[in-house]
Write a structure and sequence with these properties.
Blueprint lengths: L2 H23 L4 H8 L9 H20 L2 H27 L5 E2 L7 E2 L2 H23 L7 H7 L5 H19 L7 H9 L13 E3 L4 E2 L1 H8 L3 E5 L5 H13 L7 E5 L7 E2 L4 H6 L6 E5 L10 E2 L1 H11 L1
Helix pairs in contact: 1-3, 1-5, 1-6, 1-7, 3-4, 4-5
């Protein structure tokens, strides 16, 4: 790796962190929403992590640019691990063909595609390569900023970086942001059920292996649709299903479908994105759509809440 690339790569990686961090600072809840959609650990969805993480990204960028080469190399190694982690996290819904949107790099929500996964993979690879170079082949122990200042040929780089940082800040302030209201932010931080995806994007798999959109089925039938998420070996699930079989047969005002793993259920959430997006953590749980395909109520958990939801939907 040449000295020029050893300057440009850290600047590029740090610019990505600045772009992501600054935009998330001006978009409260973005980190928590992305963690929820990608089904990351519960602690990454907390309000504290949502507030701290954007500043950690900015701090990583500053360390890469201004710290001595040894510390910059260690930070680039951390960056490589983070990019690789997000690469795997975004690959899962992509492999399951689930249409999922996230705010991984800040800004407005965008659908996860092969480009998202590839970008994270490329960033992980070049971060690791640059970290290795700084550890083993760097000519001196100075920082990237110092190396730029001492090299007359690279005098334009600081100006480009400052211009980029200014552009990022302006973009983050002016880009329309998808913010949660205070009540939803509190629910998201406390782990309560908040759907962070548009209902129209939710997809499930039928027993024939075809993808279906519950919201569109509710619209087509002009009838409320209730998705009941169940699990094998769940006694409460079996009790609920027996009760529904006895009280809600043909002619029911509500279209009730079961969602679980196996052919004994109507549909299956193969990717787990619907459960993650609706905050389902226990069984049985239910998600209700009205006849227009919109969510009729928050996610219900337990037999009592689900029965109340059925009465409300009817």
């Amino acid at each position: 790796m040449s000295v020029t690339l050893a300057i440009w790569v850290p600047l590029w990686v740090s610019a990505v962190f600045v772009l992501s961090g600054v935009s998330k600072v001006f978009s409260p809840g973005a980190t928590a929403r992305s963690a929820l959609v990608l089904n990351l650990p519960l602690w990454t969805r907390s309000r504290l992590f949502d507030r701290v993480w954007p500043w950690l990204e900015v701090a990583l960028a500053a360390c890469i640019v201004f710290a001595p080469s040894l510390f910059a190399a260690a930070t680039l190694g951390i960056a490589a691990v983070l990019f690789a982690t997000f690469c795997l996290a975004t690959l899962r819904p992509l492999m399951a063909s689930a249409q999922v949107s996230c705010e991984c790099f800040g800004g407005t929500p965008h659908q996860i595609t092969a480009r998202t996964v590839t970008l994270n993979a490329v960033l992980a690879a070049i971060s690791l390569a640059c970290a290795t170079y700084l550890l083993l082949g760097a000519p001196d122990g100075g920082s990237v900023a110092l190396r730029v200042a001492l090299d007359p040929d690279n005098i334009a780089l600081p100006l480009i970086f400052l211009l980029g940082a200014t552009t990022v800040t302006w973009w983050a302030r002016t880009t329309p942001r998808r913010q949660l209201n205070e009540a939803s932010t509190q629910k998201l931080a406390s782990g309560e059920n908040v759907l962070v995806l548009s209902p129209e994007t939710l997809r499930l798999v039928t027993s024939d292996g075809d993808w279906i959109r519950p919201a569109r089925i509710a619209q087509a039938k002009r009838k409320p649709l209730l998705l009941i998420f169940v699990k094998e070996g769940c006694n409460a699930c079996e009790t609920l299903l027996h009760a529904l079989t006895a009280t809600h047969g043909r002619g029911s005002l509500v279209d009730i479908r079961t969602v679980g793993a196996g052919t004994s259920y109507d549909w299956e959430d193969v990717s787990g994105m619907v459960r993650a997006a609706s905050g389902i953590r226990s069984y049985p749980s239910a998600l209700a759509f009205d006849s227009t395909g919109r969510l009729a109520a928050p996610t219900a958990e337990g037999i009592d809440e689900i029965m109340k939801l059925i009465v409300t939907a009817s």
